């Protein structure tokens, strides 16, 4: 037995010795790399300062002062920070700040600043309405492109995707979009009536990220628009920042379930149950700064049952100029109006 134990000790001793040698070699390698890295960094600093010294010597200066040395080092540190920030910015853009929504063939959407991007909210099964709009005021093909180039106005139908992704509803819209090239398809939005407020928010977000325009306009797909009249109203307000233009109104908040205008969050509007001032949802416009605000904060902006109430709520706490424009009261059929609801 003693001989066996002695044999085991003799056998284990070389193994432990080899492990210790391996660990020591790894530690020595890591230490060498660390020292080499520090020496390389110091060498870079010395080369940089020698170059500065050569420059100053040529100008008659014989040495770099302590202050100058510190400034050089500080500059190099700032360069490193700037490089890191640029990398973070690139990562942020890659992480989703750039729009994820499809836009058809609008590859040159950012050529110049437009007057307005008009989003016509539509639904499945409303092709007849869309065709009526194309014939009445939106135009198609070359005329649609001419509207953009000459008047700086880009109208697009806005729609989401079917709850049964890829079904006949989606396929029909895809075919129509390829034929007309006048859609914004919100790929991440499910097209259901109760999500109209979210849809409006996503339209403003997408449009602000895709086109640089003075104004972004939301219109229903049963509204007739006089393009020249709308352009005149918007152009008259170009010098005003943070503009919210529409047929301003307020009214009763309906808390009765089953009412057409039922508001599930009715209790949030106080005991008086009255809405704050907001633009009618048939048609309203917001300036670029407000559209950018919606785009940046879309994940935390509250939505209510109706998109006009939701849009009005987004701007309550901001320094926004509300413009009550009677010509945008589409349901009144008043003389001089630039829109009419069907």
Give a structural overview.
- This protein has 9 helices and 9 strands.
- It has 2 domains: about 1-95; about 115-340, Alpha-Beta Complex (Spore Coat Polysaccharide Biosynthesis Protein SpsA, Chain A).
- It is an alpha/beta fold and about 350 residues long.
- The chain is elongated.
Give the helix tally: 9
- Per CATH, the class of the largest domain reads Alpha Beta
Q: Beta-strand level of the residues, as a percent range?
A: 15-25%
Distance between the termini: 105 Å
Computed over alpha carbons, the radius of gyration is 32 Å
CATH topology of the largest domain: Spore Coat Polysaccharide Biosynthesis Protein SpsA, Chain A
> Per CATH, which architecture of the largest domain?
Alpha-Beta Complex
Number of domains: 2
Globally, the shape reads: elongated
Low-confidence stretches: 1-12, 94-102
Q: Strands of the biggest beta sheet: in what spatial order?
A: 3-2-1-4-7-6-8
Features:
342 residues, alpha/beta, Spore Coat Polysaccharide Biosynthesis Protein SpsA, Chain A, 2 domains, seven-stranded mixed beta sheet, 9 helices, elongated
Quick overview of this protein structure:
The protein is an alpha/beta fold.
What is the fold's blueprint, element by element?
Blueprint lengths: L1 H57 L7 H32 L16 E8 L5 H12 L2 H11 L1 E9 L6 H13 L2 E8 L5 H15 L2 E8 L2 E3 L1 H9 L7 E7 L28 E10 H10 L9 H8 L6 E4 L14 E3 L1
Parallel strand pairs: 1-2, 1-4, 2-3, 6-8
Antiparallel strand pairs: 4-7, 5-9, 6-7
Helix pairs in contact: 6-8, 6-9
